[in-house]
Amino acid sequence: MTSIWHQTVQIAPRPALEQDLTVDAAVIGAGLTGVLTGYFLAGQGLKTVILERGRIGCGQTGRTTAKITSQQGLIYQTLIRRFGAGTAKKFAQSQQEAVALYQQLIQRLHIDCDFEPASAYLYGSGNAALLKSEAEAAASLGLPASFCGPGALHLPFETDGAVRFDRQAQFHPLKFLDALSRELCIFENTPVTKVRGGKLLAGGHTVCARAVVFAAHYPLWNLPGLYFTRLSQQRAYCLALENAPLPPGMFLDVKQDGLSLRRHGAWTILSGMDHTTGENPRGGRYDTLRQTARRLFGQCREIACWSAQDAMSPDLMPYAGRYSAAAPQWYVASGFDKWGMTRAMWAARQISGMICGQNTNGLPVRRINLATAGAVLKNGVQSVKGLTRVYFAAAPQLAQLPRGHGGIFTLDGRKTGAYRDDQGRLMLVDPRCTHLGCLLTWNPDERSWDCPCHGSRFDPSGAVLDSPAILALKRREAPAQKP
User: Could you tell me the residue ranges of all domains in the chain?
Assistant: First the structure.
């Protein structure tokens, strides 16, 4: 399940770290946020190193739908109500400035990344009044937003119109990442396993840094910050389709489980079927999305399928700045709420500016209040459910586990995660997440172990796929066959 971005770009490998280092700044994560941050810091003359657990762009940057836009769902009415017009305007304009900054950077560096100006549409059915109110709210904040009627969209389904954002863009994220990362100091296959102050243990070596930037999608350390109480994670599924005509523009349904569509060359990218990570026991997300594709586009042909994961903040705005007052050397970027391309640029400028002592257009310090308490409480309940979940299958059923399937069984009195691969080989793991011990669930669509508490994911053998977990699952031995 490889994204269309990974299918069309091969980024040259980088070596792993092989010695201790002393630098001005250490960035954890070589996705778009980390590379942009490293680029801006290096441009200010700081000796900067980027440390990546896997390969450059192997995380969410290579799984996105790659929309660069200040149109980020139904948020601006809520932001005005929650934070006031001044803060909402500051945030809105920072997102539009991020769109413009991409274009400036691409033009200045002559980056060939399929960058294409495009309007972004937030459409809906049965909620025209809500769309009109959102258009008015966004326009009041200085965004290029307006309401357009259903006749302007030309989509293969009925709508009541849309909020149209002009001066937005789309691109190929890995082509951009490849070009921007070439002159940066990046070490791949170098997981960071410990951070104390400005000292990092990375790939068995020590890196000392004046500033540490956590740009690996989800904050890796629980203390300080307690970000695991404030962030949840969601997954979405994507198809790249041939013979699926779509009008110019980028399109998103206002419904929580609605569809996202955009063109990339001759292909249409269709995304949807969102769910909280760890809550997909029955699977079938790809199949349902394929049925939708056939209903909308008739004789379309699938070119690629993949899924993405996003860290969701409780108040619709990302975290980008100091990790915590108790850790003055640390900086964090997370909670991008499925708008990682735009927010990555903003976060990189925000954090690099803070490290370099420049004035930044930051967001206010957010504390738990009535507006966010519900989301935080929901995260806490989700964690308790994951820690106390009773999810056993009887041990004799293990022999009947089909190829390509996984599940949790009771073996020798212990919960055990079992997966049988397509060749019939059995892989057994301890099914407790190495982050905080929540019981994992099997995701049949991705063939992965997913944590319903905080969104960590592991492959069938136990290797980490998504943070906040750092350590792999413990392997277990198959039970001895009775004579």
Answer: 4-63+174-229+316-370, 115-172+232-312, 395-476
